[in-house]
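Sanity check

After download, print the first record. It should look like this:
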Amino acid sequence: LVAGHRPGQADGALPAILGLRAGDLKEIAAQEWPEQEAPTAFLPWGSDTLVGFTPAGSARLALLEAASLAPQGRIITGVRATDIVLDNGSGTLYVSDDHERVHVLKLPGGQEIGLWEGGSPLVLDLANRRLYVDTHAGVRALDMGDGEVVASFAQRGYAAPDPNRDLVYIAQRGVTIFDRSGRELGKLDSTFPAAGGLAPNAKPYAAVVNPLTGNLG
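Expected structure tokens:
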């Protein structure tokens, strides 16, 4: 899925969403967008629906038919979404806004059933029923059901929980390792910028754990 602009008849470039086949990038679906901002990020919901949003853009989320990309509905959030994650099993959508709050919405109608403290990036750990959020005081792990804080981490950044082991990696200028309770276990020294290194001095900004192998990427 890609979003951008296509040449129009009289109005110049028109916002559009394209579906490209992964093997050869052949176009298999296209949907012109009647509004100024087309969604640029997408999450699958079930087998036939996509939830689309524009990070820090429109206050609307779009529901799309997965095969044709045709609009099926919209959810008016009233906020500028910075990140979204979806619990596919329950149809619960977690949306962070630009005021460091998490709106808990129920699909397909988008009814708000919770408002919690925390900001992007949002990361779900479905195996342990946790939602990881970033705050000024560090990453927090929230219970996916009621938003209660179940663990606090003395590190800001992008959380990468291991669903099978008692490990949580947090990436920010390097990767720090914690257990699920928030206790720091160590650092991956090779991921931190080298002192006096060349410019650009590479550093990680995100991480993810392969649930099958436990490898960190």
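If your output differs, re-run the checksum step. Summary of this record's structure: The chain has no helices and 19 strands.
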